[in-house]
Every structure is written in C-alpha cells, then in structure tokens.
Design a protein that fits this description.
By secondary structure, the chain is an alpha/beta fold. The chain has ten helices and ten strands. The radius of gyration is 18 Å and the shape is globular.
C-alpha cells in the first residue's frame, strides 16, 4: 500500500488506517478479543500499518489489544492514540501519555491526539495553551513524534496551532457526513495538515449491509447515530442503490467504493474498523481502486442525497456534550 507523509513530519502513514474503537468493547456488542487481535494483525499483513486507538476506548483495553496484535512488529507500525477531554491539564496529559505508552508496550507514540476539545462531555475548560505545553514537552522528550487534534472546529484548530505544530486533525468524514469540507479541509490543505477521517463508512451504513428496517441494540453507539434516524436512513438507502452500479463496474464492495472516494479527497486518509480478519482484508483493497474525475463527481452528487438534508452540527451522535 502506497504511504503518505503525516502532515509535515517524516512519518509515513497508510491511506487506510486500522480503527480500534470496537477493540475497547465499551459501547459495542459482540466483540471478542481474540477476533479483534486477529483482525488487527491481518490488516497489518495486508498493508494497513497505521493503527488508531485512544485511552478512552474501553479505558485502555483497546490500546492493550493493539499491543497484543502487533508489538512484535512495532518498528514497522505507526501508532496513533488520543488523550481524552477530561485529561487536558498539563500533569494529566503527561500521566495519560505514560499510561498509553504502558498499554501499547512501547517507548514512543507516533501520533498523539487531543480526542475532544476541553469542555466537552462536562469536562473542565482547560486553556489549549496548557495542553499544548504538555504535548510539546512530550514531543521534546521523544515520547511522541507528532501532535494531532480530533473533533476540533477550524477555529479551535487555528488556536491550537498558535502553540505548536499540529500535523493532523481527526474529524467524522465520509460520503454521508461532510461538515468538515466547508472550513476545515481548505485550512488543512493550506497548512499541510493531514485529515484522518473517522466513521469513514458512516459506522457501516456505507457498506449497504443494513436492511431498511434495521434496529440497533440500545447498548450499541450506532443507535444514537443521526444517520440511522429520521428520514436520513431512508435517504441513505436511496443513495446506496445509486452507488451499486459504480461499485459493480469496479468489481468492488460498496464500502470500498466509498473509501476510495474519501481517500481521493484533498489531504484525506480513512480510518476503518474491522471485527474480523475478513473485514480487514476487504478494507485493504480500497487503496487499489482508481476512480476517474467523472466518477468522483458522480459519487459526490449521490452522497448529497443524504448530506443536503443534514444540519452543520459536526457531532454524528445525539449525545449530550
């Protein structure tokens, strides 16, 4: 898989990135550690050598699973993890990083990201200058190689960049969720900041695997995803029907077509989760799909069947923040 530079660093990331929220188990159902470990390893062997996790995914469990899967090939993998919104004071950032290093069984983290801005989820409103000061110190010590942010607005990203180099932003971004395109993408292109899209398959919706009347377990976070609610779900089904002939033309799955469109967008790379080895192998194939300019435009227009009806709230879930 052809790699790309992370921001302005010499770190090389894969355009398809292994996502491991599900590896933490919390807010997911039917996840088995042994299957997840296999899925991460198979993704690595298929060329997906960049792995994204976070301290909050199962309170460190996801990070531990990543270590079990690929610690023997650590030097060939790129680890991206995140510090949560309730750990953004200087000392808390330092302590959180130490916990993540221990969980990941490594002495450095390639990309360390602020998961959510201070103040979200009733967390303390810590000045970004204080958080960045801790991150800069960790970078100077060699414990982290690059700093990223996640779920930041353009204004929040600009403010953070006043206190240190930001090499990536991780927003929700897919063919069915495109709030980031309005302000953030142009800023990232101008400042050479990598976009690491999460929910790049709209939490599985873009795979076409859910029936029109599908209902999620209340414990599954997708039960609160706005794309699965109201008329959005029906419009998504209409869009998927229009995408099927394009996927068939490329002899690929719907999900991989959506990923190919996404990684063709400026500066954009896609995080994709996998519950099992088969999904990992399938996800890796998305990097080989070449879409023409006309096809990219056609797919873009189909996606707007869904996105034209969404508001500009960047949060995908109906959670209290």
């Amino acid at each position: 898989m052809k790699k790309r530079p992370l921001g302005q660093t010499d770190i090389q990331i894969t355009p398809i990135i292994m996502g491991t929220w599900q590896a933490g188990k919390k807010m997911w159902v039917g996840i088995e550690d042994s299957e997840t470990i296999k899925a991460i390893r198979v993704a690595f062997e298929a060329g997906i050598t960049t792995i994204d996790t976070a301290e909050v995914y199962g309170d460190g469990h996801s990070e531990q699973i990543v270590a079990q899967a690929v610690s023997d090939v650590r030097d060939q993998a790129v680890y991206a993890t995140k510090v949560f919104a309730n750990h953004l004071k200087y000392d808390q950032v330092i302590a959180a990083c130490e916990r993540s290093l221990k969980n990941l069984q490594t002495d450095y983290i390639d990309l360390y990201q602020i998961h959510w801005p201070a103040g979200t989820f009733n967390s303390e409103d810590v000045p970004i200058e204080e958080t960045m000061s801790a991150l800069n110190e960790l970078k100077q010590q060699g414990k982290i190689r690059a700093i990223g942010v996640s779920n930041f607005s353009k204004a929040q990203l600009e403010e953070a960049a006043q206190y240190g180099r930001i090499d990536s932003i991780q927003p929700p971004y897919s063919l069915f969720w495109r709030v980031v395109e309005k302000e953030t993408v142009p800023y990232c292109v101008e400042h050479n900041i990598s976009i690491i899209a999460y929910s790049s398959l709209a939490q599985g919706l873009l795979t076409g695997k859910f029936e029109p009347n599908h209902k999620f377990d209340p414990e599954d976070n997708r039960a609160k995803n706005k794309l699965f609610q109201d008329g959005n779900y029906e419009r998504a089904q209409q869009a998927l029907e229009k995408l099927r002939p394009i996927a068939e033309r490329h002899q690929t799955a719907l999900g991989n077509l959506a990923l190919a469109w996404l990684i063709a967008q400026p500066q954009t790379n896609a995080i994709v989760g996998a519950r099992n080895s088969k999904q990992s192998q399938e996800n890796a194939k998305a990097a080989d799909i070449e879409l023409s300019a006309d096809e990219l435009k056609e797919i873009d227009a189909i996606g707007r069947i869904v996105t034209d009806h969404l508001d500009e709230n960047p949060v995908m879930w109906s959670w209290a923040s």
